[in-house]
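User: I've been trying to design a sequence by hand for this structure and keep getting stuck. Would you show me what you'd pick, starting by listing the structure so we're on the same page?

Assistant: Good idea, let's start from the same input. This is the structure you sent:
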């Protein structure tokens, strides 16, 4: 029987910049044995391996150097969780794929991470100011002083 995902992260997956991203998948191997889990970045023309785990537990057999010290992985026979530490819009806002590779046919799950800016920018000609989302009650504005 073909393995199936029983739970997947929401797609798209929104996260506030600077926060940790925890993606969780649950699956049923349907009697098949576990072989490997790959987590890849998807582009229009290819995939880029980020992490590979070929044993149950928390020790990857491969981690892309760009993600060294930024990933936490836990793989069991029924669930995989991947945490990317301190989300960054320039680096992490992409499409990803989890590929579960049992001894039978592999299955995949795709997710787009959308990293939202921590600060909301407002333009008031000719000045620019910011509102911190955590402290919306304080709005800082600037007055234009007359030239003397």
């Amino acid at each position: 029987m073909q393995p199936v995902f029983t739970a997947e992260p929401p797609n798209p997956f929104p996260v506030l910049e600077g926060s940790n991203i925890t993606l969780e998948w649950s699956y049923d191997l349907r009697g098949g044995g576990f072989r490997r889990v790959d987590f890849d970045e998807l582009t229009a023309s290819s995939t880029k391996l980020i992490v590979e785990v070929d044993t149950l537990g928390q020790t990857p057999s491969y981690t892309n150097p760009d993600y060294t010290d930024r990933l936490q992985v836990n793989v069991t026979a029924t669930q995989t969780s991947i945490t990317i530490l301190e989300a960054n819009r320039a680096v992490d806002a992409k499409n990803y794929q989890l590929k579960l590779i049992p001894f039978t046919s592999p299955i995949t799950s795709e997710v787009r991470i959308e990293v939202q800016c921590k600060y909301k920018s407002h333009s008031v000609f000719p000045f620019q100011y910011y509102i911190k989302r955590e402290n919306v009650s304080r709005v800082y504005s600037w007055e234009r002083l007359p030239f003397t």
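That's my pick for every position. To get oriented when you compare it with your attempt: Confidence is low (pLDDT under 50) at residues 123-132, 135-142. The CA atoms of residues 38 and 45 lie 18 Å apart.
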